[in-house]
Amino acid sequence: MNAITDLKAKADRLILQDLFESLVAEDYFTDLNITIRPIEDATKTGIIAPLTGDDTPEDGQIWQWHVADGVDIFAVITPAVLYPYLLVPESQVVLVNENGLQVLGCLTFFDQIGAHLIATQPDCAEGVAVFRDMLSTSIAQMALSLSHRINTGDLLVQAPHDFFQNMEQWASFRDRPYHPVAKAKMGLTTSDYATFMAEFDQDIPMVWIAVESMTLMLGEELNNNAKPAISDYLLTDGEKADLDAELQAKGLAQTHMALPVHPWQLENYIKPHYAAELANGTCHILDFRGYVVKATSSLRSMAPRHDGQHYLKLPMHIFSLAASRYLPAVKMINGNLSETLLRKGLKQDAKLQKRVHVCDEYSWWAYFPEGTSLFDERPRHLSAMVRTYPAVLGDETCRLIPMAALGTPLPGSKAHFFDEWLKARDLPATAENVQLLFAELCDTFFDINFRMFRIGMLAEIHGQNTVLVWQNGQAQGLLLRDHDSLRIFVPWLERNGLADPEYRIKKGYANTLYHDRPEDLLFYLQTLGIQVNLRAIAETLAGIYDIPVRTMWATMKKAAMQALDRVGFAADDRAMIAHHLFDTPNWPYKQLVRPIIARAGGPGSMPWGKGEIQNPFHTPDNT
């Protein structure tokens, strides 16, 4: 087997695991002819060896789907915390028919599911094809990512800025945990992917476009600032002199402002779709290439190569998680409204003021010509935002860690930041000490989020946008970024002396910012915060340090209960939270597969729906 094939096989198996899980979670198997039997039954038939080899789990069971007469699919499953069962890691899925036995890969397994869906729901054929294409892309791109350049050694020896970038690369490897098509960056070629994804550690020169100043909308910070040019934030004096010289030489210095553009976006969107602006002089592509960056875990957010607080966020018309990654003015306006509310909210609680660090995202520039509405398509593809990190980024006593990096195992490696954390605390690498540090991490996470929830808000708390602030061996706090997804419950805001930020929402369209009940706001803690973020960390630590995963869930539950008691909710509010977190047998689940198939590739933000899963804090052995 050659190297490329081997990597593709590994990638295929990684994504099959997530696909099988999603299908279980979203009840795709409930109307299939499936039986689950003790594993001993399969041993008698000789089917077990191709499924698991010699490593058969003690609690394993045989999952059998009777597809048609003479056609069956077998897998080995094991009981799970959030679901009735999951595919055993590293095991195979096999199809048995009159021709013998065939090992199924991710795509061939999904083809069986897709055929069933289309047979029973013919109108979903287009959505099935779209999802299959995304799966195929995910496998190919994950295979590329397996050749990453992530540095896993001597992490705390690195300077704070270098360490942070290393952690961004680590977080990029898996992207959004448990999502079977998270790695798919639809629109990137193989060469693009290996150049622009963070895990490959490539230098990326930005291109610059001079845009007529009167067509630009500016962020709040710029309207009250004497330095409205983005070059003032991003460029060295020498780079700025070179850029200004070109603007002067081309007669654009007084009428235009230079904006950085991702090189992929220039070739794949700006040139084809902005031909009129490029022809009539509204926009000019410049020769300047002096600003070089590195990608972060969000692909379109760029890090400076050297120490600096100013990072860059740009639009890219690729599709990730089934959504175009544009950057419209309305999202940045709402982000500014959110940031203002967030900063006011933090003042309501002295502990939040000490433990929550906030990026400044007030500085942005967006193409917005006369006659444009906030919800038009084309303008949202030419814009830029500066994300300024607080001083903690450069603090030698601190390290910033996107929480997704803590929940990302690297195949073939046992490396994890907890190795460094244990050494920093002079703790042996025992299961008990790993649980100790995980408990401290969970305590920080729940304490901060419960305090914010009490005020009537929750930030975007999945692992990519929530950053652990680690200081002198302690989980000091969290850094928040990407403020356009601050979720709120207005009645609780108002009782804390805060006001509705009056987000700009398109009439007739669903939104995920306002919520009618506190239970609806709690949904994001249960899903993004726990099922995606903390769960990934718990399972990664369990695998690396050989700890039962249910033990990690028990540690998480204990931290949640202690934080809930500590924060000081009103009795009724505490009872509501405790009921939904600990007492109900089921939790809400944020669906992944069904919404993508239902939308079949149409426009919009990341599609999602609601389902139910087992409550991980309610199971009898998680007391």
From TrEMBL:
It comes from the Bacteria. It holds the Pfam family IucA_IucC. Pathway: Siderophore biosynthesis. This is AcsA protein. Signal peptide: none annotated. Residues 603-623 are annotated as: Disordered. Residues 452-592 form the Aerobactin siderophore biosynthesis IucA/IucC-like C-terminal domain. Residues 164-406 form the Aerobactin siderophore biosynthesis IucA/IucC N-terminal domain. InterPro entries: Aerobactin_biosyn_IucA/IucC_N, IucA/IucC-like_C, LucA/IucC-like. Keywords: Plasmid. Gene3D superfamilies: 1.10.510.40.
